[in-house]
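URGENT: need a sanity check before tomorrow's submission.

F., can you look over the Acetate--CoA ligase record below? I want to be sure the sequence and structure line up before it goes out.
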Amino acid sequence: MNQDISLPGAGPAVPRPSPQDAVEPAPEAIQNAWVQDWRAQEERALADPQAYWASRAQELEWSQTWDTVLDDSRAPFFRWFTGARTNIVTNAVDRHLLTARKNKLALIWVGEDTEQVRTYSYFSLAREVDTMANILRAMGVEKGDVVTIYLPRIPEVFFAMLACAKIGAIHSVVFAGYSSDALAARIDDSQSRVVITADGSWVNGKVFPLKDLVDEAVRFSPTVRSVIVVRNTGTTVEMDPTRHHWYHEMCQLPIAKGRCATEQVDAEDPLFILYTSGSTGAPKAIMHTHGGYMVGTYATLRDSFDIHDEDRWWCTADPGWITGHSYLVYGPLLNGATVFMYEGSPTYPYPDRWWEMVERYGITSFYTAPTAIRTLMRFGEAWVRRHDLSSLRLLGSVGEPLNPEAWRWFHHVVGQDRCPIIDTWWQTETGMFQITTVPTMPGKPGAAGRPVFGQEAAVVDENGVEVEDGTEGFLVLKHPWPAMLRTIYGQDERYVNTYWSTYPGLYLTGDSAKRDADGWFWIIGRTDDVIKVSGHRLGTAEIESALLTHPDVVEAAAIGLPHAVKGNAVHCAVVLAPGVEPDRHLEDGLRRHIAATLSPIAKPDSFEFPEALPKTRSGKIVRRVLRARALGQDEGDLSTLDDA
Ligand code: 6R9
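Structure tokens as predicted:
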């Protein structure tokens, strides 16, 4: 058992699972649902998961079919649909052009200034993707090259991701709220030569200077040759004519014109890498591939959110996170849906901005995060009641546990007691939902649901033995699934150690959970040094290394503490350099330092300034003791600590 893992996680307390709390879906919500008899489908899929996944894959197009559905001969390096050829863009865009969907809206985009609206049919989306792909090709981007995308929530992020996929390049999207240091680390690690960014992004009425941050990040980069800049805010930026290119100018060049064929790639060819925080060390580049990821995101979105052609789908996630990849860009387009994307935040200028959008654009399916629900809940129902939300059909949640109180508010106030709530538990690594519901299943406030078709999950103790229902333990997944990560880019050994070594044959999720007697899973929280703050995934190691670059800091430890709105808040214990006195001013300085070197999302809520940190004799920080102290709880067994 990995020593780093200790129960319980920092997540909010989970109420005792009680099956009688189940909320049956309203009959009108499930009339036309794709999955009616979910028990039968669950049984069928589990009887032969490979046959099940093959049947789902057959709903999509392949230029060459597979020899094997699942090749587990080198497990845990699983390979799906081996021998097959396709491209996720063939299925997300091209195939729709041969049907009536050609003229259907693929994307409705609304700016923070809501007078700014841009819409794209599948036909025009295809043209935009071709243009971007032609430009990338002309810049020398080839199959297998990594392109870094650092863009706000604007349509070009769709074009850029799809253009990379189209030519077989690997995209690495970096959340546009990360600092230049964090961006530089990701560019260097991935060795990308091209960066796609914008002059700036709008954040609550102010410009966030993306291009300046890129300049700082690539100043010393040995790899980056070109930076493509999308004009978004109209901000003045410095353009180095040798390697900075305005996107709108490049679009006018002859090289940008004309169609660009969609490269047919091997099902196992990489589609993207996405950096995410782990327990230790630098963020890891999770790698996903074309074939399996395509099948997994397509099938899970179709089943759980019951996508139909008349739907208008809104996933509020940023493209910089896995949710944006799987369920803002790829999953919905694979299903031929109409995607809605909004540039701004839910509370600016007023806390009814999202409801205004739902009403104005007739959103049917709305997928968001618990932290946003809790934030909006605090502003009161009146903001919601101002708007006609009768278009809504389904609601969804992701990123952290949706506590029963927030579940009930979302269900009653936003969903008017008629919209099923689909809580989706999954990870950057899993690529697709793993534990969730389909609309025909009863919802249980606070529970995520059941493993997706073809998957089984279990709750085990530290020896890998399944615990009794109702008991908390480590959540593991039993079967490989098509959209699973293939490795940590360039770090195969770390991949095996992180996910597959603790319990041989089982995928270690890093979460703790309980299962109830009906087979519903209740997620509790992380058991490792990952903190989910407002649904954003942060590693204590990253926050600590950011603090250690501050001149007044000698040692630092970061932990997550329960927080009513954010789920968790960052708390830091900092040992200061001799002679430095802690005060408000210093705390603010440390916060600003973290915002500048990592990201504003990582800013600590609270600090303590001890003389020394609790450590084991081998020098490992014992976060359990810090957590107990911060919460005023019993510190437990201290006998293994270093006396100092
Ligand atoms: C999709 C995403 C993964 C971690 C995961 C867990 C937490 C995600 C959840 C949830 C409870 C849910 N998590 N969804 N916890 N209920 N519905 O968030 O990916 O950023 O990689 O984070 O998020 O702790 O292990 P990622």
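My own read: Residues 533-631 form a domain with the GMP Synthetase; Chain A, domain 3 fold (CATH 3.30.300.30). DSSP finds 19 helices and 32 strands in the chain. If you see anything odd, call me.
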